[in-house]
UniProtKB/TrEMBL annotation:
<keyword id="KW-0193">Cuticle</keyword>
<dbReference type="GO" id="GO:0042302">
    <property type="term" value="F:structural constituent of cuticle"/>
</dbReference>
<dbReference type="InterPro" id="IPR051962">
    <property type="entry name" value="Cuticlin"/>
</dbReference>
<dbReference type="InterPro" id="IPR001507">
    <property type="entry name" value="ZP_dom"/>
</dbReference>
<protein>
    <recommendedName>
        <fullName>ZP domain-containing protein</fullName>
    </recommendedName>
</protein>
<dbReference type="Pfam" id="PF25057">
    <property type="entry name" value="CUT_N"/>
</dbReference>
<keyword id="KW-0732">Signal</keyword>
<feature type="domain" description="ZP">
    <location>
        <begin position="1"/>
        <end position="84"/>
    </location>
</feature>
<dbReference type="InterPro" id="IPR056953">
    <property type="entry name" value="CUT_N"/>
</dbReference>
Length: 84
């Protein structure tokens, strides 16, 4: 089965299961792009995932998905006492 298998370029899942899953870490070296945003404050992450149904041939059912995520930073207020 394909469960818990990282499917990256050059690696293929040959299980009998019809469902495949992929988990990518944000700091992984897998071609993921990151971009800091000032307004709104946070980080954008993006990666293109190509789903191929044959390891050697391009087929008409192959698809590519550009996945984008945004993680907004929590708004942290700064409080401090000042003595004059």
């Amino acid at each position: 089965p394909c469960r818990d298998t990282r499917v990256l370029q050059g690696r293929f899942c040959r299980g009998a299961n019809e469902k495949a899953a992929i988990r990518l870490e944000i700091r992984a070296l897998c071609g993921m792009k990151s971009l800091r945003s000032v307004d709104p404050r946070g980080m954008y992450y993006g990666i293109t995932v190509v789903v191929s149904f044959h390891p050697l041939f391009i087929t008409k059912v192959d698809q590519a998905f550009h996945v984008k995520c945004f993680f907004e930073e929590a708004n942290r207020g700064l409080t401090a006492e000042l003595g004059v």
